[in-house]
Amino acid sequence: MEKRQVHYTELGLSNTREMFGKAMAGKYAIPAYNFNNLEQLQAIITACVETSSPVIIQVSKGARSYANETMLRYMAMGAVQVAREAGSNIPICLHLDHGDSFELCKSCIDSGFSSVMIDGSHLPFEENVALARKVVEYAHQFDVSVEAELGVLAGIEDEISAEHSTYTKPEEVEAFVKQSGVDSLAISIGTSHGAYKFPAGKPVPPLRFDILEECEKRIPGFPIVLHGASSVVQEYVSLINQYGGNLEGALGVPEEQLRQAAASAVCKINIDSDGRLAVTAKIREYFAKDPKEFDPRKYLGEARKELVKLVKHKNETVLGSAGKAD
Ligand code: G3H
Ligand code: 13P
Ligand code: ZN
Question: Is residue 324 assigned to a domain?
């Protein structure tokens, strides 16, 4: 059977244009939660419906192949349907996170995504522009939003210094945005992916808000995206370590700094690791406390409940997106 081309509006999804416009004007950020499976998606949608928050549900290339692209399309459609049946009209965007090729972006657009990221951040400037431009030309025919990235997110092992900077260069953002035609731009200001964002045992260095401000000045009113924005919730790290895990020294971005980012031109904040930690912590705790249990609904149900709590907390007290879909 041939795969049918599906437009995101058939699935009831929204692109990011209106979401970002409102977030910019209202000085908050749209949460972008990564998911791979049913329970994560259920939790994200439940929490966003209960807090009346617009939401971006996003999948990496790996998550898409894990979940299966056809299954994923119907999961997204189901998520919209569940929200509507609950009487909620929150806008829901399905986004490809860190797309690594034109072909992958095209495939996602053709299967119903309403937004894609083309991550050419490792490429020289001109190649990054050209790749983003190519994706934009395809995506915009279908009104699909495109995110790109300038600057490389720090890894724990990277030396963050002026000389070896992988931070976004503010002097490049204007030309990049103009030449590529993208709808939003991810920048690098000191965050990184995963659970080990900063060296343990030292004070957490502040994000480079000076770079963010310089970028904002050069592209006023243009939506900026923050990746690597998990706080690495310490209660979860402790639970995981208490119940047989080993995540010594895991550290993330303090919530106060995320609040500051959300009030700026940062319109989208990406969160994956915190969700993974919540799920893992609750499953570990469950297994340790009830070693006889083997019904996945029991321990996955506990994990799902915790994820609802986490997402509500983020929307209400960190990103400021709660109530914004009213
Ligand atoms: O930025 C990457 C996301 O956290 C997704 O990670 O490729 O392991 O699904 P993944
Ligand atoms: P975290 O690893 O900090 O959750 O970042 C997720 C992310 O940026 C996905 O693109
Ligand atoms: Zn990312």
Answer: no
